[in-house]
Write the C-alpha cells for this entry.
Amino acid sequence: MSFSLAVLGALMLQSVSAQNEPSIIASEQTTLPMEGHSPPFTLQCNLTSAHSTHLESYWMKNGEEIEDTRSLNSYTEYRLNKPRGDDAGMYMCVYTFQNYPPGNATIEVKAAPEITGHKRSENKNEGQQAVLYCKSVGYPHPSWTWRKLENGAFREIDNSSGRFFINSRDNYTELNIINLDINLDPGEYQCNATNSIGSRDEKSVLRVRSHLAPLWPLLGVLAEIIILIIIIVVYEKRKKPEDSQDAGPMKTNSTNNHKDKNLRQRNTN
C-alpha cells in the first residue's frame, strides 16, 4: 500500500512539474550549404505560456551567452546576416522567471567542417619530436583522422612503432611524432575532418634532417679554410724553384767581381 502511494505521489509530482514548465515554440534546425554563401536567416523563439511571471530572455551559443541579446519580450530572435562555418553550433533561447528556474529551447545550426588553420610544414632533426595540427569550424564537431602519403595514396597512420600520438578535441586535432626517423617519417601528412554534413582535409609536409645538419655551416667554414691552406701551400712550392734560379746568377756576378778586383791589384803591383 505504501509503495503504491509512493508511486502515485511521484507520478503526480512529474505531472505538476510538466505543467509548470513553460511552453516555447522555436525555429527548426538549419543546415548551411557546403558551397557558396548562405542567405541571411533568423532564429526565433516565442514563449506562449508560463506559470510564473516572465522576467527576460537571451540567447546562448555552445553554452556561452551571446552579448547584447537580453530582452523583456516573450518573442525573441537572433539574426545571422552572413552565415559562415563558424556560425554553426548549438543555439539556445533562454527565458527567466520570477519564482521558477529558467526555461529554454535549442536550435541546431549545422555545417560541414571547414579547416581554418593547419601547420603547412615542419622541419626537425632526427631523434626530435614533431607536432602537426589542424583546427576547423562547423557543427556537429567532426571526427578526426590522420593519414600519411605512401606509394601515391594517403593511408591511415600505422602506429605499430608506438611513436605516433593523436589528440583530438571538438574542432582541434594534433599529431605528435616522437623520436623522428630520417628514413621513415619524412613526407606528406593529411588531417581529415568529417561530420554528418560533409568532410574536409588539409596537407602538411614533414622534413627530417640528419644529426649533422646543425654542423653543416661549421663544416662549410672548415672546408673553405682547408682549401685556402692548400692554395697557399701549392703557391709557395711553385715559388721556391723560381727563387733558386734567381739566386744562381747573382752568385756568379759576385764571383766575377771578386776576380776583377784581384786582377787590378796584381796590375798595380
